[in-house]
């Protein structure tokens, strides 16, 4: 694959303009579906329909991203209540798990359609996220990048990105592919690469991935 040349100042200006316009449109158009999803979440399991995750943003700044709740309310406080020892070990390292037993019925639908990500467009409008960029990670996960940590943190994280639309589940911290894919985006971020990711995102959503 021929890697696009990284963009400069003009790219960053266009990228931010796209972030604001696209995110404002998404928030306006999908306000009613989001409200319906919130009602379904509350009917399916006890707890608030929204939750916030603490992540590391541009230049190492702490950010809190919004999502629709797809798990039981105490999923993060007490994962041991729902997971086997093997599942808990994998989740502790990767912060993701295939067939996670904590996911609710409504939550599974929201994840398969990516609707749980909708509130993150508010984070984009606030400037904490971009529509396209590396996946927001925890402080502990930033150290998986080793000497590339500062380089990884030099780019604003995004709702969707190169890792999500390529290997995703096959690319883990353990095998090093996750780091490689995220740093590939950081080093080649450009309009051409962002457009490629944007198109692939909708294809992945159509396949329920």
UniProtKB/TrEMBL annotation:
Q: Which domain of life is it from?
A: Bacteria
The EC number(s) given in the record are 2.7.8.-
Give, as one word, the top-level EC class.
transferase
* GO molecular function per UniProt: transferase activity
- Membrane-crossing residue ranges in chain numbering: 20-43
Q: What is its main location?
A: membrane
Pfam families named in the record: Bac_transf
Localization recorded for this chain is: Cell membrane
Q: What range(s) does the Bacterial sugar transferase domain occupy? A: 15-205
UniProt keyword list: Cell membrane, Membrane, Transferase, Transmembrane, Transmembrane helix
What family classification does the UniProt entry report for this protein? Belongs to the bacterial sugar transferase family.
Q: What is this protein called?
A: Sugar transferase
The record lists the organism as: Collinsella ihumii
């Amino acid at each position: 694959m021929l890697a696009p040349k990284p963009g400069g100042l003009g790219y960053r200006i266009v990228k931010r303009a796209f972030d604001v316009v696209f995110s404002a449109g998404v928030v306006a158009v999908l306000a009613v579906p989001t409200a319906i999803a919130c009602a379904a979440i509350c009917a399916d399991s006890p707890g608030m329909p929204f939750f916030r995750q603490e992540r590391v943003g541009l230049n190492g700044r702490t950010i809190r991203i919004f999502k629709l709740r797809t798990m039981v309310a105490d999923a993060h406080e007490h994962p041991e209540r729902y997971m086997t020892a093997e599942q808990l070990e994998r989740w502790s390292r990767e912060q993701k798990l295939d067939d996670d037993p904590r996911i609710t019925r409504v939550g599974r639908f929201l994840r398969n359609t990516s609707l749980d990500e909708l509130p993150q467009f508010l984070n984009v409008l606030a400037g904490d996220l971009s529509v396209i960029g590396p996946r927001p990670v925890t402080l502990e996960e930033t150290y998986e990048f080793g000497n590339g940590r500062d380089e990884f943190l030099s780019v604003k994280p995004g709702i969707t990105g190169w890792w999500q639309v390529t290997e995703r589940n096959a690319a883990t911290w353990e095998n090093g592919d996750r780091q490689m894919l995220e740093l590939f985006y950081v080093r080649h971020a450009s309009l051409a690469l962002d457009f490629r990711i944007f198109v692939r995102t909708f294809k992945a959503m159509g396949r329920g991935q």
